[in-house]
Amino acid sequence: MMPHWLDNFLFTYQSLVYSLGVNALLALAMYVVLAVGQLALGQAAFMGVGAYASALLTVKLGAPFPIALLASMAAPALLAFVIGAPTLRLSGVYLAIATIGLGEVLRILYLNWDFAGGALGLNGIPEKAGFVWIFGTLIVALVAFVFVSRSRIGRAMEAIRADEAAAGVMGVNLPAYKLAALVASAAIAGLAGAFNAHVSSFIGPNDYGFDQAVTILSFALLGGVGSPFGPVLGALVLTALPEVLRPLHDYRLVIDGLIIVCVVIFLPTGILPWRIGRIGARK
Amino acid sequence: MLVRRQFNLLAAAGLGALAFAGPSAVTLARAADPVTIGAVEILTGPNNKYGIAIKNGFDLALDEVNKAGGVLGRPLAIAYEDSAGNKDQAINAVRKLIGAQNVPLILGPTLSNEMFAAGPVANERKVPIVGTSTTANGITAMGPYVFRTSLPEADVVPVTLKTAQQKFGIKKVAVMYANDDAFSKSGYDVMKAALEKLGIETLTTETFGTKDSDFSAQMTKVKSVNPDAIVVSALVEPAAGVLLAKKALGIPASVHVIGGNGLNSPKIGEIAGDAADGTIVGSPWFIGKQDPTNQKFVAAYKAKYGSDPDQFSAQAYDTLFIVAEAIKAAGAPDSEKIKDALIKVKHTGVLGPFSFTPNRDPADTSGVAVLEMKAGKFGLLQ
Amino acid sequence: MLAQQLLNGILSGAVYALFALGFTLMFGVLGVINLTYGFYFSTGAFIALYATHYLHMPIWAALPFAAAVTGLIAIVIDELLLGPLRRAKAPELSSLMVTLGATLLLYSLMTAWFTTDIRRFPPAVFDGGAFEIAGLRITLSQILIVATTALIVGALALLLQKTRLGLAVRALAENPDAAQLMGVNAGGIVRLVSFISGALGGAAGVLIGLNYNAIQPYMGEAMMLKGFAVIIVGGLGDIRGAVIAGLVLGLLESVTAGYIASSMKDAVGFLLLVLTLWFRPVGLFGRVAAKRA
Amino acid sequence: MSATLLSVEDLTVRFGGLTALSGVTFCVAKGAVHGLIGPNGAGKTTAFNLISGMTAQTSGSVTLEGAKLDGLPTWKRTARGMARTFQNIRMFREMTALENVMAGAHLRTPESFGSILFRLGSFRAAERSAVANAMDILDFVGLSEQAERRGGDLAYGDQRRLEIARALASDPKLLMLDEPAAGMNPSEKIGLIDLIARLRARGLTLLLVEHDMHFVMKLCDRITVLNFGAKIAEGAPAEVRANPTVIEAYLGAKVARSLETRA
């Protein structure tokens, strides 16, 4: 039997701990696209697609959780694949704005979709995801990211980020890499969305808009994109911060904003500027 | 005892690991240690006006409860947590209040959305959670520990529409609602059902966004169908915008706007000015109610905060008395006992007579008043 | 109804255009999507509110006063936030991010001070009277918005096309390095453009606050998404494009709400945005943008 | 005469109203060192960009080993056996010198996604051989000591050599060098001349753009001269040096330049 205080402690911080894991996954989703130099801000939208796809399956159709998880990855990945081709011609702020537009279009879609609850969202989502699911996935994802970084693919990705045209001349198939990054990002964000839906029991159409998109971006930028650990650290810090700053009340968001500003100006490579090596095996 | 107090302070500072003062420890506490209940409201961010009105109502009632001797011979205290209008933060706040501060009961959260997220958490932990401003359908269906003292829209809106129908002979209306938030949408669902039941024809249904400021296109459409009245479900800001657009497009004052709970706020007159005149709402409470309890409340509120209370403050004010009575009846600050006592409470407050239905919703709709705005103030519809 | 809907469309289009002018100018010259722009919008409205409330200024004095003060605030914010990044030649991602953090900071500060209560101008400040011409209704504040937008567009066009200063601004927008080599005082121009954009944002806030009679800290944020759509459709940095795109968006929204479904009204902007990015990412008339993309 | 590796036919590109290159035609023979020269703004780098696929031509065509490359993106041209360096160095600055070269060997590193994810033996083998191969190349250009240093931290001349190493890593048939000697001091230039000679000895075909006349005349078998986007001469170094049009183009340019500086 668990001691009473430990039980209370876990109960108190359970959703915070879950949010840490979910947000770390979202930060990785952001990292994938930033790692190929693409400022695609569709992660919130993909998260929403994953959350809705999985929640509709478990709530309305009573599907088993693993099936819902697969759908939460497949649906946004498919969406990313379809919109990827025309979108990836865009660069910089155009891509950023186009992907923000995607989030808004989906929001309007959910609002007008009665089967998905419209503005009321979906209630009573079973609490299927837990500590093991969320952090197990996070660890698997991190290991995969480290493995991919330390390989031919990791070198090509960093080359694209450093100098896209030069990477092309090295023989890197730019559209294929960018599309793959976007699809992977969508799948991870969708999975995070499914986890989030299945620990907080309620999702609504307004949870995946512009605000959420920039929050996810700030995870990655705060942490730095030299290695996959940077965004994860950024997510942990920014998720814990509102709880830590709770006593400041009105000035909490002020501090939040101030931290972002100071990091960008004074620590342009993030709070974890360490760059991961790109070679997988030597002797 | 000094040691105990320090522990309480540490626990209040959010160091959950040290908060091992379980219910058994509480009974050992000295008489002067307060009974602390929790409250989760929107205290920061864009929607904090609702949370602050509610907090004001709680605090005012708290003063009076404590002046009258508190509960169980101890003072009553409220530990506030901010949700910032964010459902994840609402969940965290509820968890923290229960897990780290061991509160036996939670007031709030402010929005129906937040309640849908946080209600199941309290219910799972068997801690009663009492919404004072959550009017959407299905709130109390979440579980036996979820209560609300606010009349759901489903109780208020039919009364409003029926009164207006009889009074003005309304036959056909235009409906406008914000389709992007749960509060307004569920209000609309109620209106739609009530209109059908009363045999009132809906000429057109127009939607807008809660953050919109331009309603001219929708209002032009409404004007073109010549309704007898316009039925609106929205929060106060967009509702004020709708009223201003109605005036700007020259729709006569004889075409009344009939609103849901969101329009029931003095803010609507402050923002929309004379464009708000003629707005009809149903309310569990209104500022001009003549009974002495209410007049005392309004005067005390003005004295303390320097502004008029709204229904959110009034509901919060009554709710705190209801909860205090339940704690007294329970005989101990124990969640299970309070839950059992709460359902039996009968209280007459500024909203009129109050009791819970077996489903933990307010039972009595006799307090519903239909109000009309005149010169920036709501008064009983004459 | 059609005529009234078209008029509605032109009016809300003018509002969009007015908002987008400073936004697009800021991008065109400074090369940065400055998310703090929405804050200038709110700031302008609040300054005018206080000027009319406490200094008892008439609205025709409060409007330029608020615009000028907002412009000065914009210079300070630009220098503090983007100055260090420009000097370090940081990537555009950093600029986006720093203005994002600043937006969070500034809005929260504003809410902490002013709360989120909606305020309105004192009724004495402006007569909200309406005119009815041939069955069409238009209010005084709407006339003011359209007139001011037209005036500002005209003045900006003159400034950019006909003056030496305008030439320097355009040179800097086309090619910052070359412009500096040719003796353009880049620092000065940056401050000037910050001032003008901030002042435009502030003026837009005053007029739109006056029209909808609702002023609160987050009013600027609500305009940002539409603002994005307008400046992209018009072409980033394109003044004329912003005006036309604003009007097109306003008209399409009105017609959609009037004849299709009001629930689709908000989708129009994004549909337009998507189509533009798909078929013509440089915007309707974009040329400067084409070089930057 | 030996077989043709690269042939450029009637290559033209217009940007807006400006014709940057008009109707340029030349052939590069297998195993040759071919120079592309001309005054500033003659269109040399533009020609490079068109050949490597970084810019799309308005008309004309580029053929490598008899196969048309038109419309192919850069990475497909690289797969066909083409590699290049850049006039203003485009190093992957954060990567080490070794990683830079390995990135250049992208197409020659047989690692499947699955083998990377599961760290299969085939992945390890491929990675080890990629490291060995890259070290060989670094050794060949004389940078093996610098293998673990950040690309951006290398001395200027070393960065130029690293770019060449990176291009070599794709094992090209045609290596295109855009002003390889620019910014180098005399001793670095001597080293570069030696390097190019050794590259040629390995059987590589080289196409190079260069400003330094002495350098070009010394190294090249054949030279194509551009001016104002058009070809004005072609031939062996001695022929080109004696060509009056070429002299005039250079002299004219010089006179113009001296006038500019005086004004």
List keywords for this structure.
heterotetramer, B: 382 residues, alpha/beta, Rossmann fold, 2 domains, seven-stranded mixed beta sheet, 13 helices, C: 2 strands
Uncertain segments of chain C: 288-293
Strand order of the largest sheet of chain D: 6-7-8-3-9-10
Enter the CATH topology name of the largest domain in chain D. Answer: Rossmann fold
Instruction: Strand order, main sheet of chain C: write it out.
Output: 1-2
Number of helices of chain C: 12
Radius of gyration of chain C: 19 Å
Classify the helix fraction of chain C into a percent range.
over 70%
Q: Got a strand count of chain D? A: 10
Largest sheet composition of chain D:
6 strands, mixed
Give the full name of the CATH homologous superfamily of the largest domain in chain D: P-loop containing nucleotide triphosphate hydrolases
Q: Could you tell me how far the N terminus lies from the C terminus of chain C, measured between alpha carbons in angstroms?
A: 42 Å
One letter per element, helices H and strands E, the order of chain C comes to HHHHEEHHHHHHHH
Strand content of chain C: under 5%
What top-tier CATH class of the largest domain in chain D fits best? Alpha Beta
What topology emerges from the helices and strands here?
The complex is a heterotetramer of chains A (283), B (382), C (293) and D (263).
Chain A: H1 4-34, H2 43-60, H3 65-87, H4 92-111, H5 131-149, H6 152-162, H7 164-169, H8 174-200, H9 210-223, H10 229-244, H11 252-266
Helix pairs in contact in A: 1-5, 1-8, 1-9, 1-10, 2-3, 2-4, 2-8, 3-8, 9-10
Chain C: H1 2-30, H2 37-53, H3 59-87, H4 92-114, E1 130-133, E2 136-139, H5 140-162, H6 164-174, H7 176-181, H8 186-212, H9 219-234, H10 239-260, H11 265-279, H12 288-292
Antiparallel strand pairs in C: 1-2
Helix pairs in contact in C: 1-5, 1-8, 1-9, 1-10, 2-3, 2-8, 2-9, 3-8, 5-6, 5-8, 6-8, 9-10, 9-11, 10-11
Chain D: E1 4-15, E2 18-29, E3 33-37, H1 44-52, E4 59-64, E5 67-68, H2 74-79, E6 82-84, H3 97-104, H4 113-117, H5 121-141, H6 156-168, E7 174-178, H7 186-201, E8 205-209, H8 213-219, E9 222-227, E10 230-235, H9 237-242, H10 244-262
Helix pairs in contact in D: 3-5, 3-6, 5-6
